[in-house]
Design brief:
The chain has 393 residues and is an alpha/beta fold. The chain has 14 helices and 19 strands. It has helices spanning 21-29, 48-53, 61-64, 78-81, 100-108, 131-150, 177-188, 203-208, 232-247, 269-273, 321-339, 354-357, 368-373, 385-392; strands at 4-7, 33-37, 57-59, 69-74, 89-93, 112-115, 158-160, 163-165, 169-173, 192-197, 212-215, 251-254, 280-283, 301-303, 309-312, 340-341, 344-345, 358-361, 364-365. It has an eight-stranded mixed sheet with strand order 3-2-1-4-5-6-18-19, with helices on both faces. It has a seven-stranded mixed sheet with strand order 11-10-9-12-13-15-14. Helix 6 runs parallel beside helix 7 and helix 6 runs antiparallel to helix 11. It is globular, with a radius of gyration of 23 Å. The termini are far apart.
Length: 393
């Protein structure tokens, strides 16, 4: 019997979809049965007819939640998660570090959950599943476009009969995937660009994009290769360091995020208050939990007393829904191909890709990275037969 894969319609405010008709067709060709919740792809400009023509079946949410593998962009509602049962698998950005209760309930229900936030970045075989990178790349691109559209002057140098306009000076804070894409796009738009990062190994990447590298003395990253949350002292040192750089630039793009946690404030209120009229802050870290820029509000543009503009832009990938969905669906497809062997779902928890990507399986929270973040003891490593024999001696 074919493995059934479904895609759910996202909540209001999210325009992306986890499977596109193109990927649905490829799954059908590979002997999967694909179910699509009605209107799941409409906001990403994919009609139900497009999925039907790809060989998928359009169903209601109740039917979609019965699939062997359920795919989503964001964590579904608690009511939807409660309908999943033992042996089912859900794949998506499931907010495992921000919603401990749901993780525990999925584990208790025997649901296998694969959370893209947990994917190890240091394993090369995992790159084609890296939804975080694919979505942040799009967000970084869109951030530069949004900055150019919001900035009340020319972005590039312009020579006209009336005089010459100087190019905008853009500072991108954070040179990971989103930041590098923002740097490259802002440069192509004609701005003079600088990139700031707390990692010395980001210098070469920034400079390769024809930008000036500003590397902090505060350099930290976690075991998965991401910049970790700063301590209070480190954050204060960073804000002080950044204040001078911010004052010299017209546009500041911030990209710092902590999965499941409050985003770090990297631009202080003092730095915002000292910004000149017309200065633009694009805050990719903006969320209901806060933002990278003091005073930012998700989905809104705030104009300060001094005339600076703070744009809460934590949803930029969703604002480019077709391209974002195309990339995300490929990440989903690659993940499915990785865990399905000979027509069966196989989760090898000692595989260096799956050991953290799989948040729950076999009735427990299995990801050691997640267990560490939740304050749980790490899962014991598998003991190979040779080791057992040696121990028996």
């Amino acid at each position: 019997m074919a493995i059934v894969v479904s895609v759910l319609k996202e909540a209001d405010g999210e325009n992306r979809v986890a499977l596109t008709p193109d990927i649905a067709a490829k799954l059908v060709k590979n002997k999967f049965k694909v179910l699509v919740e009605k209107n799941a792809g409409v906001k990403a400009f994919y009609s139900d007819d497009g999925y039907i023509n790809a060989g998928a079946e359009v169903v209601n949410r109740t039917e979609a939640l019965k699939a062997d593998i359920v795919t989503v962009v964001n964590e579904p509602t608690a009511a939807s998660l409660k309908k999943l049962g033992k042996g089912q698998t859900i794949i998506g950005m499931l907010n495992p570090m921000g919603d401990k209760k749901s993780v525990e309930e999925l584990a208790a229900a025997g649901v296998n959950s694969l959370a893209f936030e947990l994917l190890p970045r240091t394993v090369s075989r995992a790159q084609n599943m890296d939804a975080n990178s694919s979505q942040k790349s799009i967000a970084g691109y869109k951030a530069a476009l949004l900055a150019a559209d919001t900035y009340p002057q020319y972005f590039p140098m312009m020579m006209t009969a009336a005089g010459t306009a100087r190019p905008a000076k853009v500072l991108v804070i954070g040179a990971a995937v989103a930041g590098l894409q923002a740097i490259g796009t802002a440069h192509r738009l004609g701005a003079v660009v600088s990139g700031y990062d707390i990692r010395e190994d980001a210098r070469g990447q920034i400079e390769s994009l024809a930008a000036k590298a500003l590397i902090s003395a505060v350099q930290v990253k976690d075991e998965n290769g991401y910049a970790r949350a700063l301590t209070a002292d480190e954050r204060q040192a960073q804000q002080t360091e950044l204040a001078g750089f911010i004052a010299e630039n017209n546009v500041i793009i911030t990209t710092a995020q902590v999965p499941g946690g409050k985003p770090p404030v990297v631009v202080s209120k003092k730095a915002v208050d000292n910004a000149q009229a017309g200065t633009v802050f694009i805050d990719l870290g903006s969320s209901d939990l806060g933002g990278n820029v003091e005073g930012s509000k998700p989905g809104q543009t705030v104009i300060t007393k001094s005339g600076a503009l703070i744009v809460g832009a934590g949803d930029l990938a969703s604002r480019l829904p077709k391209s974002s969905s195309d990339m995300y669906a490929k990440n989903i497809q690659n993940t499915i191909n990785y865990i399905v062997k000979d027509g069966e779902i196989v989760l090898d928890l000692d595989d260096d890709v799956l050991t953290d990507l799989v948040a729950t399986a076999n009735g427990e929270i299995t990801s050691n990275f997640l267990r560490g973040r939740l304050g749980l003891e790490k899962r014991a490593a598998k003991i190979e037969p040779e080791v057992k024999k040696e121990a028996a001696k």
